[in-house]
Amino acid sequence: MVASALLVLAPLDVAAQRRTTRKPPPPPPLKTEPAKVECPESLGVGVRTKASYCFVLAGRDPAQGVVVTIPSHTGPATLLFDMHNRHTYSEEDVKSGRGYASYLAVIGVLTMKGELLGRGAVSSEFRKAADLYERIGGGAGPGGVKAVAPIGHETVMTTIPVGVTQVSLLGEILDSLTAIGRESASPGRPVAVVSNIRVEYRAGK
After folding, report:
1. Which residue stretches of the chain are H helix?
2. How far apart are CA 58 and CA 83, in angstroms?
3. CA 120 to CA 123: how far, in whole Å?
4. CA separation for the pair 90, 145 (Å, rounded)
């Protein structure tokens, strides 16, 4: 009787073990790719990096900011971008000893409903041409570059919750001191420059 019971239970035990050792499917691979960006005011393409540079304007309406599309994702995604100050280069000011400038800029990363997800900040100083991070092509200056150039460099990372498919970058704070005086953020005016905008995520349905 005992032997017969063991023979009956043995197949059941094997089936139970098979059920308990079944592994869940692996999560989708983590992807990093350039983001789809709607830039309201472009600075241009860098001579050295070949990256596209976009002004971040001061304001409160997310629709007026730099709008970034976030792909459908499983779990939180990460928005990454490089942030720079905006400097207008003048060879004459440098030669005359009036070339010094300092900048502090803060921008916000918001949902299209205006919910703040994170902030980015960059601070830099200018004394000579070598302090510039990049020159932008398409201008009338020597070498065909623009006078306005990015200075400083900070990489900003912001966590994007599940279900958020677009975010907006808007300028919040600007404190700049140049040869023409001090400037602060005002609606519709550039606060900072961003480049290399990308998204890290696991693809969702």
Report:
1. 2-20, 91-95
2. 15
3. 11
4. 12
Contacts 24+ apart (CB under 8 A), 91-96: 91/129, 93/179, 94/128, 94/129
- Which residue shows structure tokens 């200018």? 126
User: Angle at the Cα of 190 (from 187 to 191), degrees rounded to 5?
Assistant: 90
Range list of β-strands (E), the chain: 30-34, 36-38, 42-45, 52-57, 66-69, 77-88, 101-111, 116-126, 148-160, 166-178, 181-184, 190-202
Location of structure tokens 């976030």: 70
Residue 136: which residues within 8 A CB-CB, separation 6 or more?
43, 44, 45, 46, 47, 53, 145, 146, 148, 149, 150
Domains of the chain in start order, with CATH, are 33-202 (2.60.120)
pLDDT of the chain, 205 residues: tens digit per residue: 544 544 454 555 555 555 666 787 777 789 999 999 999 999 999 999 999 999 999 999 999 999 999 999 999 999 999 999 999 999 888 888 888 999 999 999 999 999 999 999 999 999 999 999 999 999 887 889 999 999 999 999 999 999 999 999 999 999 999 988 999 999 999 999 999 999 999 997 6
| Token reading at 97 | 């000893």
In whole angstroms, give the CA distance from residue 101 to residue 126.
5
